[in-house]
Amino acid sequence: MGVAGAGSEELLMNPVFLGWEEPVIGHTAKWLLANFEDLSEVRVVVRGSRAGRRLLEKLAVEADRQKRPLFLPKIATIARIVDELFTGPSGLLPAAPELTQKLAWMDALCRLPQEKKSKLFQTREGVGRNGQPALLLAQRLLTLRNELGGEEVSFAEVARVMSEKMPEAPEIEAERWELLEEVFGEVRNILRKAGWMDPAERRAVWAEKGTPQQVQVVLAGVVEIRPIFMKMLERLSRPPQVLVFAPESQRDGFDEMGRLRPEFWAKRKAGLESGQIHAVVRSADQAEKLAQMAKSWPGATLAVADEKAVAGIREALREEGMESHWAEGRKMREGRVASFLRAVADYVSRKPGEAPAWQSAALLMRHPDGMGVWIKASEVLDEYAERNVPEKMDPPSGSLAADWAKKLANRIGLEPTEESASGHAQKVSDMLVRIYGEMEVNLDLPSGRMMRDSLQKIRKVVAELVALKLPYLEKVRTADFLRMVLAEMEDEQVPEPARAGAVEMVGWLELAEEDSPSVAIASFHEGSVPKSVTADEFLPGHVRELLGVNDNQQRLARDAYALAVVLGTRAKKRGIVGMVVPSFNPAGDPVKPSRLLLAGLKGKELAARVLALTEKEEREKKPATVDRGGGFGDVAAGQEKIDRVSVTAFRDYLKSPRFFYFQSVLGLKAVEDEPGELSPAGFGSLIHRVVGAFGKDKKIRESVDEKEIFEFLKGELDRQTRERFGDQPKAAVGWQLELAEERLEAFARVQARERAEGWQIVVAEEEKGKEGRAEFELKDTKGRVLLVHGRPDRMDWNEKQKRWRVVDVKTSSEPKNPDRAHCEAGGTWCDLQMPLYRELAPKVLKEGVWDPEKCDLVYFHLPKDGEKAAVSKPMDGDLVQRALDKAKEVAADILDGKWKDIGELDPEQTSETFMALCGQAGIPREIAEEEVAE
């Protein structure tokens, strides 16, 4: 028998260092079998559920190899196992399930007076915010409570720390935490009346008064243990046995319980070799590089630090003829049932008796489980929308559109009512039976399993809601009930079945426990490795550091240790490790290489590493027509010609003449009914409309008062939001509006400064709408005329400088100056917008003394980081002239009807429909599958 001490008051730990000579999970299995004849009374704590499953497999294999009986231990994460190590004092209430806690928070927030509620999400003094959707706010506060509770830190303690250690912080910050303590007191009361207890408080009671069971606990590579769990472990009658996944030489990096010492790992040299680092430019380059690695390294495991990169990597693997297995599985939010339930929730997000919003009704009607299987429904919808541009689904009685709207309402069978959870549950269950009851689902397909598991999860959540006796559930709106169900099921994982020969893909932190000799790591950049928290509105990085709560140093240590295990177990020719470091993440935002790549380096070593990270591998150019998941090749261009285009169409032609043909010549557009929330393009358009309304108001646009400008913008944002989404927008919109407010706050600050410096708005895009668009004659290189139309966002005049400027508002995440936005460093043209706007300017202006030589072309940047908001430097004059020369060349090609070239489309910025038409995308695998047979 291995270590098994008798009850001692003070635990004396003797960590066992397993080393890196072999994979850590296999080594753990051997150690357990060598030290315990009977494992049934052993509790093995692992870092994650995947590690637990792998350990069970290794125990079975090793026991079979040794020809010995196997009595399996209980294996789980520490959060799951500690509650089984004690019996609590009599009369202790059970721990409230997460859904119960969330609803208790929602109930407590609903009881909170509005003036107090507004303090929970506070910005600088004098700046207000929209109220957060109750569901998301409750979820955020529950997550906050769980995090702090595990660290044994109360909201009141945070308030004390803020007051004592952060005197420079606004007084409102400490008040906010005191208010959170007050709200939590109400949550505690709600739970107690319903027969439940807060889990963290219950564990605190167990740690102090509980009776420990007579079992042996083994901590297998657990490097992070929260204080509440430490207290419970310290009260065990037998001290835990600690297994450290590292050699004895790394002892200084761990405490006696195997937890990491951050200061050690912050300074430790990673031990990387330059050949292990592969610097690339974009996500597509990264995906192709990983596919090459997987092809060259049979049996390799791919680890992905940024989950948003997974889809692109899997697509690249398919193109190379390789299937993949994503260990995390797919979230239910990606499935057909969840998308249907979201569409229904949006559809009923309205007042009783009010017609549904057009966007939500149209989306639901096109959904395959709405009316999407009837092609006629979409035809009627398109025809009605083209003629009426509706905001509501309220076509005149007797029309075809009205008939289909009625059929949709009957099929769904839900109305925007307020009633008990049990009342809603019955109606929602009836709807799901009506929609899915007679479908035959093919469970051999991922989509079939997704549908089955989603419906089972919904049934479970609905039953749980009905069983809960909480005041909040006595009267709930239909949309809120559906969104509660969605909140509980959307993040649930549907595992993928393992397939022979598939490339295994895991999360970054799971890689340390993998035993594949060859591994490649994707997205090895800051923000992913290590993850850092700086902008958390409750617990930003500096506050976490003061509280000692999962701060950035701890995250850095965790990732540095994980990298050490990955490299150490494959050192000395035991395996291969490759790290792919892109310059841009999947969202297109620039990212820096992970600091772990430079850790501990100095002098020449540091210089060599930096050089290696700057030498980007060029992406191999592929043929234009690529078969992606069952595509149908590119659609040939016709002979049609045009003699009138918009300013922005030049950008389309530069990136892809074929794309230009489909969009500008044939006038095709992807049908995208906004599902009650904002797409990235919709988000930018909303800000443009609000800023345009500011420019239209001749009084407010003269203001130099930042606060006055922002108050106008907030009011206009609220007006446009209500007009578009109604009084009950879906929860995600609330967060998007918070982001929009931040951009508009930055606009107010910069605009006030610009007006004070003499820049006066003379023309704004919204003043005359489409009717105010102007056009000019652009002569091509052959002297022919192409009509170019458009209207700049705005034009400013500075009386002091006697200069004009054409202004274009940009809301992209990272600012880019006009020169680089128009012409890349290598001389490739990607836009001609601003120089063409200058040519349009006198047509738009119509009055005033115009001189093109006294006109600047600038961007008004409103990026994600508000501190970077600014008016850019003017576009270079020589570049402007060269752009106009290029415009003449493009005009000649347009007039000649040169549409054949496909060019290079960015899949992250181009509709899948147009990607498919250009032969650069196909029908996604999940859609191509026959999901159901009716």
Written account of the structure:
The protein is of the alpha/beta class. Among the domains are: 16-88 and 210-259, Rossmann fold; 98-203; 266-329 and 497-614, 3-Layer(aba) Sandwich (Rossmann fold), CATH 3.40.50; 680-895, no CATH class. 44% of the residues lie in helices and 11% in strands. It is built from 33 helices and 27 strands. The strands form 8 sheets. Strands 8-18-17-9-16-10 form a 6-stranded parallel β-sheet. A 5-stranded parallel β-sheet has the order 1-7-6-2-3. β25 (855-861) and β26 (870-871) form a beta hairpin. α4 packs across α6 (134-150), α14 packs antiparallel against α20 (478-489) and α26 crosses α27. The longest helix is centred in the last third of the chain and has 26 residues, at 731-756. Residues 1-12, 122-132, 621-633, 767-771 and 922-934 have low confidence and may be disordered. Residues 644-899 form the PD-(D/E)XK endonuclease-like domain.
Give me a quick take on this structure:
The protein has 33 helices and 27 strands. It has 934 residues and is α/β, with parallel strands linked by helices.
